[in-house]
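<given_protein>
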Amino acid sequence: EPTVRTELMEQIPPIAIFLQESQPKFPTAFFEYLMPIVVRYLTDVNNQVRKAGQEALLILLEQDLVAQSDIENKVCPILLDLSAPDSDDEYKVEAVNIICKMASMLSRTTVEHMLLPRFCELCSDGKLFQVRKICAANFGDICNAVGQEATERLLIPKFFELCSDSVWGMRKACAECFMAVSYTTSPEVRRSKLSPLFISLISDTCRWVRQAAFQSLGPFISTFANPSSAGLYIREDGTLSIRPSVRDVNSNSCQPSNNITLMSSSTNAA
């Protein structure tokens, strides 16, 4: 029964946490018995079971309960198979979604070597606009996961493609995550490549794209500032904030510090 498998998946994370806390008693139980079930249910025929498996996997990754070897040898290969060009449409959409969500939880090396090439392919998927939209909505997070060098070498050309996509929802998603992409690049790339690209979005024929671009204009401009003099920084939750200067802190030593959040780094598509 699918409901039984779904319930089972919901119990996997707390069981895994218990096993981790009791590791001397159960040193290999999770890796031998539970992890194979999670991986297998990622390809279950039932939609609800698959979603429960995906949620369980993300919780396990967030809690750092999955070994690096399992990530590289079990999780990534199945996601690459599910997101292959000839994969079923529904499976492909789910796979690219989970790839984007787990990128921030994995090491930069794993993301760059195992997942980034497939992500770049999916950005150009001509069959499913849903796949491209997920890529566009999560583009800033992927850039942050792989760093400046890989972003400028591999991702910026794909970002240009998505910013000129025929579907306006794609261009809108790019406008919404523009600040996060810009923050990952060098000042020269911001000036010579991203600035003209942003002008094209702010002049887009679709008013929804223009509106999203205007909302991202201030945060995009802020990425040109020198953090040491402007006091701008990216918080752990992905928001751009202003850090008070030393002079302000000293003059208001009795006042609580007040950081101003400007905007979230990326906006997920509906």
Notes: The first helix runs from residue 2 to 21. The two ends are 31 Å apart (CA to CA). Confidence is low (pLDDT under 50) at residues 248-270. Residues 1-66 form one domain.
